[in-house]
Amino acid sequence: MLTSYLYKDLSKADIQKLITRNADPSHSIQEVVTGILDNVIANGDQALKDYAAKFDQVNLDKLYLEKEEIEALASTISREQQRALEIAFQNIHKFHSTQLRRERVTETMPGVKCWREVRPIEKVGLYIPGGTAVLPSTLLMLGVPARIAGSKEIVVCSPPQKDGKINGFVAYCLVLLKIERIYLVGGAQAVAAMAFGTESIPKVDKIFGPGNQFVTKAKSMIQSLTNVSIDMPAGPSEVLVLAEESANPAFVAADLLAQAEHGADSQAVLVALSQDFVDRVNVALAEQVELLPRKDIAIKAISNSYAIIAADIQEGMQFSNEYAPEHLIIEADNVEPITRLIRNAGSVFLGHLTPESAGDYASGTNHTLPTSGYARSYSGVSVDSFVKKITFQQINEEGLAHIGTTVEILAELEGLQAHKNAVSIRKKELGIK
Predict the structure, then answer these.
(1) What are phi and psi of 350, to 5 degrees?
(2) Active-site entry in 327, 352, 356, 367
């Protein structure tokens, strides 16, 4: 179970070692991904079919499913399951629809008006992981804000099942989102296909979605190889639980395992205030993990995880901010003063009754979040992720009279005479001194 470390006994080097995860010091992942990218660039659809045979054990005649096939698959799930996906869709839509706001025009000087206007990113690529678990919730988390933003073309890639199709849950989400085609491609090769384009899959402007270390590495690499951007480095998944003594060890263990079952490379960190509490959580972990269908995966992830024993909440939050978790759960009676201490986190879950799984599925917030410490500098996916905010300015005669001399002086001191002339010629034409 979880190995414990006393925070006060840790050196800066110790902390750095503990908070570093998903590194690739030998560049072995990068070498594999480089080969995949090169192959997809050179061989297009054929490379994707070859990878489907190799990694997914399925021979594909075509790389996509269209509307009729999607609707037929969607009809195979029960009405109760459809309703659950509909509620999740509605909550996610409700939360994200508040994010698209029109900004006010600002007059920085009389006659000088500046403002920003929102425009959607026209072509977006959504990667929906498959692997050991198929995630229809991720399709909702990416597709809903893309629709709200108004993206013109939404390209969806997800690994095929053994029968060369997708499951009914993903299909029903496609129906809810009014997306009429899905490409049966997974892994780093899906990122490559959307970044460079193939005979079947169009090139996009920005790629979204979580994945394993190979997917994440591919997303990072394509930014230096093409003009396609990404949402963030997102994957493998992680959680940090900060628990007071009043927390229920069974709740804490359940939250740690909910993250651990994602994959063997996931990480679940506990920050507690005593060894006794860690021991009680370890007992609960041992009991609960035995009941999980994905027991072997969860045990591997827990073996890659640990507990920190802090002197108090402030010290616990200090470690959390250094770790910068994708998911931060605060299991405490009075969470408000603790939230003020948070500097780095992807998404935060407050109180004893707010499991991270609620955010994964249906509370409304987005579950595509920065991992591996990138919460220090990235936000999770939102409607903002799918738009550009273009600045505008408009200057009239009064404005040119107010701002003209300032621009001329600044251009001159930088030695850019043409910049100065662009103002001076206008002033002369208008008779502005």
Answers:
(1) -105, 130
(2) 327
- Please name the amino acid found at residue 46: Q
The whole-number pLDDT of residue 131 equals: 65
pLDDT over 80 at 255, yes or no: yes
Distance separating alpha carbons of residues 318 and 278, to the nearest angstrom: 19
Given a cut of 90, is residue 130 above it in pLDDT? no
Q: Which entry of 326, 331, 352, 367 is annotated as an active-site residue?
A: 326
Global pTM?
A: 0.94
Q: What is the pLDDT of residues 40-63, one digit of tens each?
A: 999 999 999 999 999 999 999 999
- What is the domain range of residue 328? 3-22+240-364
Q: Find the CATH number of the domain harbouring 12.
A: 3.40.50.1980
Tokens standing for residue 25: 């010091």
Q: Among this protein's residues, is 153 annotated catalytic?
A: no
Q: Residue 107 and residue 88: Cα distance in Å, rounded?
A: 42
Looking at residue 134, its pLDDT comes to: 72
Q: What CA–CA distance (Å, rounded) separates 342 from 403?
A: 42
Q: Is 327 a catalytic residue?
A: yes
Tokens of 110: 């009389």
Please tell me the distance from the alpha carbon of residue 57 to that of residue 138, in angstroms, as a whole number. Answer: 23
- pLDDT of 132 higher than 70: no
Give the tokens for residue 355.
Answer: 């499991």
Q: Assess if residue 192 is contained within a domain.
A: yes
CA–CA separation, 268 and 260 (whole Å) = 6
Average model confidence (pLDDT) for the chain? 96
**Separation of alpha carbons 190 and 256, rounded Å:** 30
Burial level of 30, CB count in 10 A (0-12/13-18/19+)?
A: middle
Residue type at 59? N
- Looking at 364, 386, 419, which one is the last position of a domain? 364
Say whether both 228 and 85 belong to one domain: yes
Same-domain check for residues 321 and 284:
yes
Convert the pLDDT of each residue in 80-95 to its tens digit: 999 999 999 999 999 9
